[in-house]
Specification:
The complex is a heterodimer of chains A (244) and B (65). Chain A has helices spanning 13-43, 57-84, 87-119, 127-148, 152-166, 169-179, 200-243. By secondary structure, chain A is an all-alpha fold. Chain B has helices spanning 8-44, 52-55. The longest helix of chain B is centred in the middle third of the chain and has 37 residues, at 8-44. Classes of the chains: A mainly alpha (244), B mainly alpha (65). Chains A and B meet through helix 1, helix 2, helix 3 and helix 7 of A and helix 1 and helix 2 of B.
Chain lengths: 244, 65
Amino acid sequence: MAAIAGQPTRKTPWRAAIRDARLWLLLLAAVLTLVDGYLIFVVAPTDAVLGHIQRIFYIHVPISILSFLGFLLCAIAGIGYLIRRGESWDRLAHASAEVGVVFVTLALITGVIWARPVWGVWWTWEPRLTTTLILWFIYVAYLMIRQYAPTPQQGRVWSAVVGIIGFVDVPIVYYSVQWWRSIHPVQVIGPEAADDALEPIMARILIFSLVATLALFGYLLLERMALRKTEDTLAQLRRDANSD
Amino acid sequence: MTAIPPDNLPFLFAAFAVVWVVFFIYAGYMSWRRRSVQQELEELREPGTPANESTAGDGGEDAPA
């Protein structure tokens, strides 16, 4: 799509729609987060055993689940890229991996902060924590491969393979509390969660927290993809400038 | 209300503070980086820059995936 130099680029309606979607998601995430804060700190009952520290759970669990979603999107987009070799697939894979790493990092940090008063230690090499740390390393490696591969094309292919294979660790993380002797609390959401794992009011607030965090996740993902698109355009312009 | 160990409140505060600080830093970094890249793009697309006739309009700040 060529444009005459100096003339403004024609904006297509779907571009404006994407930008609007980002703004609306940001606004939605802000509103939902404020309501979520009220629900977590005012409405949610205090846990009889753990006390206030249990409220970390309302942010720790959604962040963990959405990190899984990020890595799932990365794996799917990686498969799409290997089949179609489309830039859009690669951008989705890259953005979802990076956002997933941010989320899993926060899941580890909030878990560590919860563990200190409850378990008496900041960290222990129990299965859930260890497999989550491995997940973090896998997708940090994914991002490093993209950065340091000999050529961008090799980086895209190699990272797609890592993203797909690395996703194998996600179900291992989820089921680790059942497969091995673990001190981590069992699942409260998902296929293996017991029906009465949570009080109904706690379950509803957890679902709300999940929706609020999902809006934030969506905003960050779209923002990262837009940034990547702009970076790609700049890189292309630089290559063209150097070749002329 | 049950008896709550008061020492846990700093941990609760720390967890939420870390999460929101990281989210704000990450979103802020992306916004700053996008403006910076966009500015470079505009400079490269100024009239007289050889590359702009072949690639201008192929993307930009609001270009989707």
